[in-house]
Amino acid sequence: MIIQCSMCRVLCRNRRNQKLWPIIVYLSLSITGCQAAPPMASPTHEPTPVIRLTTVVPGEETPADDAYAQLRLDMVEFTIEARGVQDAEVLRVMRSVPRHEFVPPEYVGQAYEDHPLPIGYGQTISQPYIVAWMTELLELKPGEKVLEIGTGSGYQALVLAELGDVEVYSIEIIPELAEQAAARLHRQGYNALHLKQGDGYYGWEEHAPFDAIIVTAAPDHLPQPLVEQLVDGGRIVIPIGPPGSYQSLWKFVKEGSGLKAYNLGDVAFVPLTGTGTNLEPPTAAP
Ligand code: SAM
User: Which DSSP category does 61 fall into?
Assistant: First the structure.
């Protein structure tokens, strides 16, 4: 069944002048999907220690990570804050998490640039601004549980975990990427994330319900299992639209048996694959 949105307003991606225009979409939880058209908040988090990776380059006295600190500050100031992301904790984490550790060696020099980068298997690590914006939109509060669909490199998962008192679950459909992300996070000493290989369309039933769900690949409809695994008041941030084209970024807030929906404007994501969307995940590395 297709959910019809009673009104719809596409919002400007530069959020400085943006207002929220909720679209109320009432649906029964037995409904299988919502096809349609997705904005933001300023949560507060207790300051927590940030993981510092200290990759020492032979022959250098200082950790290599120092060389990237200024690039991270610039990335946050010029590509994230400048577009309107304001949450202080999200900005703190974006200034701290070493993105260059999450990209293939040939792309390390571009790790803090304002665009996505390939991570193999036709997939990407998202543009830093999108990572920060989607994280802000989740409005995570201390003690909450968040599910990410599309672990990819593991970068977004670590950004979520570094917010502090938040329990992070993340699912990746491509076995090799799931293994690489788990090994990378493990190697860096980060073991508190819950990772699994599988089809995230169906959520993670054993650990539901979640306070927030972030989907980092685009289905052409809202997966109903994810709606069902959300607490009342829970948030889903998800790109929805046809594969190989622009999609709309949506934020849905669960309110009883209904969803309040916010269309946040155009984005471009890789497709959500698997049986729920009838798209085969790629099997070859390039
Ligand atoms: N969040 C990632 C990061 O920080 O690197 C980037 C994600 S990339 C844009 C989208 C990811 O979603 C890809 O790794 C892709 O394999 C994965 N994906 C696609 N369909 C999926 C599904 N049904 N379940 C879980 N992961 C899926």
Answer: S
